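Quick question: who can interpret this fold?

. . .
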Amino acid sequence: MNAWAMRLATLGSVERFDYPYARAGKKRPDPHARLVAAHRDALEAARRNEEPAHVILCGKSMGSRIGCHVSLEVPVSALVCFGYPLRGQSGALRDEVLRAMTTPILFVQGTRDPLCPLAELDRVRAAMSAPSELFLVDSGDHSLVPQKTWLRRNATTGDAVDAAILAAIERFLAKAAPVRNNKA
């Protein structure tokens, strides 16, 4: 997410944080309630530093899912989910929070992401109350990285793919939170 934090900073102010387990150097994530509390606390701390017109939560994988949970407790303008893990490691469908949301959401998903089968995401999006958009990264995996053979075959680069993702985010934010200097 370091590279994405720099890219997103071209669209507005960015505040980053790490969950307590990551700061402690642990690999196993904290329990769900602690993750949500840490995310909520980081959001509140960022708002104390600067009260932006719009707050956009952006997260990758688990961070995107936890951001969705936080948006149910603390109002935000929009969410951008990079590689949303619709299916957990156990295979369980994680759609309850998405169905409960009302905040606009952009899913940025790789077409080869095993944690987010696109047909299932389509069904969930159809049942959601929140406005949602989907940007597909052709041949992208859970980390949104396309296969090298796909890049060569399509005469493109990873940087060009990332630029297309950023452009999609900018278009989404222009509709969902149409003011510059968003907090990402």
